[in-house]
Amino acid sequence: MVDIVVLGATGYTGRLIAQYLALHPQRSSFTFGLAARSQSALEKVFKRLNLSKDDVPAFIMDVTNPSDVGAVVQQARVVINTIGPYWRWGTSVVRACVHHGKHYVDLTGEVHWIKDIIFELDYAAVKSGSIVVPCCGLDSVPSDIIAFVANKTLKSFGGPSTTIDLSTSAWKLGGASISGGTFSTILTALEDVPKHKLLAIRQNFVLSPVKGTHSPRPRMLYTLPYSDQPVYGAWYFMAITNSQVVQRSWGLYELARRLNHHNETAVAPLSYGPNFKYEEFVILPSAIYAMMYSIIFAALAALLVYFPPARMLARRIIPGPGEGPSEKQLRGGSIKITNITTSSPNSQGEKIVVRSIFRGQGDPGYFLSSIMISECALALVLDSATLPQISTRGGILTPMTAFGDVLIERLKTSGHIDIESELLVGAESRKTR
Ligand SMILES: NC(=O)c1ccc[n+]([C@@H]2O[C@H](COP(=O)([O-])OP(=O)(O)OC[C@H]3O[C@@H](n4cnc5c(N)ncnc54)[C@H](OP(=O)(O)O)[C@@H]3O)[C@@H](O)[C@H]2O)c1
After folding, report:
1. Predicted TM-score (pTM) of this structure
2. Span from the CA of 8 to the centroid of ligand 1 (angstroms)
3. Considering only CA atoms, which residue is closest to atom 13 of ligand 1?
4. Phi and psi of 122, rounded to 5°?
5. What pLDDT band is residue 259 in, cutting at 50, 70 and 90?
6. Distance of alpha carbon 106 from alpha carbon 7, whole angstroms
7. Is residue 180 in contact with ligand 1, taking CB distance under 6 Å?
8. How many CB atoms lie within 10 A of CB 318?
9. pLDDT category of residue 348 using cuts at 50, 70 and 90
């Protein structure tokens, strides 16, 4: 029995996670094992990371064989699942975790799949006490954190009844790259997933248990208010998953607030409020650049969707399974997300505005994702007593509803991620985190 098992440990991201866990400063406080379908490929990972099987147990499992999956899941308290595309391979793993009351985290960004597992397994997960948290990587930890932190800062200045009107995140990605596994997941969505399921995820609140106020529609040009210099940008594809996850966090808090109205102090501080709207965009050098980006992005997406030879060509030039950014790219990348959140007006008609920043050093999609998901799993193993109240009931949750401040502190302690939030308008300005 181990605390954590990493499924897909021979894959590009699985190896990064194994390395991060092996070198973690709290290594003596937890145990972990590695699982893969190929014994020889797993041997290579042990050799490359200089791991011993006495210290790190090895498991062989093929995700297409449910008895393999059940046997491995039973050997761990928390499962980190990196076997994608999740639409194709993820459901049997979540089913096994829920069935055996184990906790689960993954790196999916596939909203159509998360919608299906919520429908099939959320109630069963609550019944078995299994905490299931999809989207524990770049989709959608930073977005979920930044809305959560902005809400806390607003309330710290405006009082507990302050609610959010609009929260806008501007993403600046330095040297972002793509792995073969991620690319295969995108192609699977285009080729295998029924079109009506892909169209459905463009609606607001697809993953939320309750409906709220619709967020602004995607557009060709975005600006960030309250910026010293003009900030322009365009809609980009990660905004779909991130907005749905943030709206699920909103919905889970909102549901908890409605169900716990007799215990307002426990849940109300987390509620974003009935007018909450969220949007995000990627920063580009100018307004013209942003509009050109939108047109080119739409044209490329249409090519990939409607013109199969374009997908064949893309397969030739993009990395294959198990491949991803080089060591230099992993260390050299960066991310900075600037979020401006405005409160709904108070009874005097005054608004409060806060600015929150999420900074990460290292390739955002892989280096930082492997840190984020590892710290999520470690929060389940080492910090179970301090997880948010909403988490302890189990179910299919989001990073912030499951881990809240525990994850924020863990990421900051990692030394690779920094998160801060400050007041801009409405009271005396000072940093809070
Ligand atoms: N959202 C984010 O921020 C984020 C970040 C990183 C990754 N991801 C996602 O994570 C997933 C993995 O990405 P990656 O680049 O690490 O992919 P990868 O390198 O291709 O690794 C996939 C892993 O899955 C294993 N696998 C495939 N089929 C299997 C089966 N039938 N039974 C058992 N294991 C099986 C592979 O084993 P073999 O080695 O034997 O082939 C490999 O270990 C993708 O869906 C990607 O989109 C998301």
Report:
1. 0.95
2. 6
3. 181
4. -60, -50
5. confident
6. 10
7. yes
8. 16
9. confident
